[in-house]
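Structure tokens please, single chain.
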Amino acid sequence: MLGWLAEAIAIVVMVAACGGGTALERPVGEPSHPDLVPEPPDVLHTTVEDDGTNLIRFSSVLVNVGEGDFVLQGKRATDEHWMVTQVLHYTESGGEVVPTEARLTWGGDGHDHWHVARIATYDLAELDDSGEVVEGDLGLTDTKVGFCFYDTHRVLDDVGPEEGVYEHEECGDEDDQELGMGLSVGWSDTYDWSLPGQSIDITDLPDGRYRLSARADPNDWFDEVTRDNNDASTDFELTTREDGLRSAEVLRTQPESSPSTG
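Here you go.
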């Protein structure tokens, strides 16, 4: 199952080091960092659950616009916590495995595989008449478990491989003790708005203007080209129709162009 991961990690052959420890084969060149960028969450749907809860639903999309693939590996002993590392390729040869504080969590909601927990977060803020964020935390965030990274769609022309490299199945089974996942340069990992967790409860939210903000890697777990592009947002107007149903009209997105459209 981990054939691609074995190839990726083959560049970081472990050799004996002084004192009985281990060291990585010396990388040559510069590290080719990935760069995770969120698409503005502008695919909005308002739904009513069986218990009467009103939700705003949205798609989550992360795109790798960096210099190298985003590659992770996880290992654990029996049922102990996962040790998650990032694999960085180098421009000429070799590479390194970088320890991280990232957490893996089991889906538990119909997503029967492992996820990087809270690698992207979404929250709502109120806007005033001028379109500025009103001070005060609404405390409204998404319930998304995390991302199982794999190549969903190629979104950047002439960048990265033409065919996907990293597959959904590599995110592992519940009793696995090692797994790997990744996202190729120029590809997105996309979660459709209809999937579990792609939502925020707006039952008690009054009509008005709001901002739905997305942030990639909010805990700064991973090495990237830059963190200046880790945020995106969508402003929308929430209204209640005569029949009591809610609707959300997109007003603008930030940035105005997404990674996949330039």
